[in-house]
Design goal:
This protein has about 150 residues and is α+β, with helices and mostly antiparallel strands. Helices cover about 40% and strands about 15% of the residues. It is built from five helices and six strands, in the order ααβββααβαββ. The protein has a six-stranded mixed sheet, sandwiched between helices. The chain is globular and about 50 Å long. About 5% of the residues have low confidence.
Length: about 150
């Protein structure tokens, strides 16, 4: 199936996709701030530049879009029809990079919390996110996945 947009319009649409200050990231920031959990933006100097970092707690938070990071939900499993080889390779590289970044952060003594876009739509997400961040801050190393769409690695 060919693209519904002209190449120029598709280029404009893709340029508009943001990597920072996205709606899911802003929602996570509002939830953490409302719970009184402080954070810093950007994670400069850390592997993968986490979206949010809590240096005192040694917690790094990534807010991932399901499609872009190849999550195992319906949206993440969707395969583009146009330029499929490029997109499957791109998403595969993103997944491999996510694993490498998580390992590098853990090796440096950081705990990682990954928030998936699809998990933000579940009931009780805000409470689960706050609990996950607080649990990560209280542990020496965390593992597992909560049902709220957050996961720690």
């Amino acid at each position: 199936m060919s693209d519904v947009f002209t190449p120029e319009k598709r280029s404009a649409v893709m340029r508009a996709v943001k990597g920072r200050e996205t709606a899911p990231e802003l929602a996570v920031r509002r939830i953490l701030r409302a719970a009184g959990i402080g954070y810093r933006l950007g994670g400069r100097g850390l592997p993968g530049r986490p979206d949010l970092v809590m240096p005192g707690r040694r917690v790094a938070v990534f807010v991932h879009g399901c499609f872009w990071h190849g999550h195992d939900c319906a949206r993440g499993a969707r395969q583009p029809k146009a330029n499929a080889d490029y997109w499957s390779a791109k998403i595969g590289r993103n997944r491999a990079r996510d694993v490498a970044v998580c390992s590098a952060l853990q090796s440096a003594g950081w705990r990682v919390v990954t928030v998936w876009e699809c998990g933000m739509r579940t009931a009780g997400f805000a409470g689960a996110l706050v609990a996950e961040v607080r649990a990560q801050a209280a542990t020496v190393s965390g593992s597992g996945t909560s049902s709220s769409g957050t996961s720690s690695a």
